[in-house]
Amino acid sequence: xxxxxxxxxxxxxxxxxxxxxxxxxxxxxxxxxxxxxxxxxxxxxxxxxxxxxxxxxxxxxxxxxxxxxxxxxxxxxxxxxxxxxxxxxxxxxxxxxxxxxxxxxxxxxxxxxxxxxxxxxxxxxxxxxxxxxxxxxxxxxxxxxxxxxxxxxxxxxxxxxxxxxxxxxxxxxxxxxxxxxxxxxxxxxxxxxxxxxxxxxxxxxxxxxxx
Length: 211
Known about the structure:
Elements: H1 3-6, H2 21-48, H3 51-73, H4 78-109, H5 115-136, H6 144-173, H7 177-210
């Protein structure tokens, strides 16, 4: 799960940071890629009745909104960027809880997803997220706002791999449980990422208050 990324210790950023033009361009590109994949994946998830695809589509939408928020606060004070990171941590936690609830609902309903749609859409989503992750990798150790952007993208790529495994599991077993299990894993990734971003954002807010 990329433990080296989870446990890195970035240096504290200055109270005021000037955004890199290259980083701004990367965020715009990431925003449009994620929004396009949201539109594609939510339609495919509904047709395939796949909880993991629906979860991944909403994750794409949430990331597009997060990239937009990151663009908004670039160049603002550390306080504003840390507040944005707190908001994104809360949104990641809410996403994780929603996915867990949705998985329980589908388990109770007993519906079975369509594995072929899960497979090709999951592969396309993985390609999109690996491209974005490659663009953002150089910025993974910035402030809490930049770190939250990297963690969202990393989690997306891991989630896409899990969707592909779920598609194989559903195809081989004819059961919905692989799809539901992957949805639960994706929820756990979102909750873990929120837990990582929250303390750093709080430290940055305390840094501002002590200045």
